[in-house]
Write a structure and sequence with these properties.
By secondary structure, the chain is α+β, with helices and mostly antiparallel strands. Helix content is about 35%, strand content about 35%. A four-stranded antiparallel β-sheet has the order 2-3-1-4.
Length: about 100
């Protein structure tokens, strides 16, 4: 089943994001190679694809996992948590309707 993983950033976490980004992307690339990643990306803090020093307010990941427990375990191990980027992560079942 698909699950949405929504990470909400601490304020002023841009520097910590940069430090943990390679490890964060490595895990996402592994999901993609396994054919389980649907979409992933950050939420800019301002209305711009390149928010510069404004940074990001969070991230969204939609991926396939065997169970909500497996999705939560994966989310809990995100390097952004250990680096102090995310202040909260929410995992929910996700039903894709479009694109079909």
């Amino acid at each position: 089943m698909l699950y949405s993983i929504v990470g909400e950033d601490h304020l002023n976490s841009l520097e910590n994001r940069g430090k943990a980004r390679a490890a964060h992307l490595e895990r996402l690339n592994k999901l993609q190679q396994e054919g389980k990643l649907i979409i992933a990306g950050p939420n800019p803090s301002i209305d711009s694809n390149d928010p510069g020093e404004a940074g990001f307010s969070g991230s969204i990941i939609v991926a396939e996992f065997a169970s909500i427990e497996a999705a939560q375990t994966w989310a809990d191990a995100d390097p952004y948590i250990a680096a102090g980027v995310y202040k909260q992560v929410t995992v929910k079942p996700f039903k894709q309707v479009l694109p079909a």
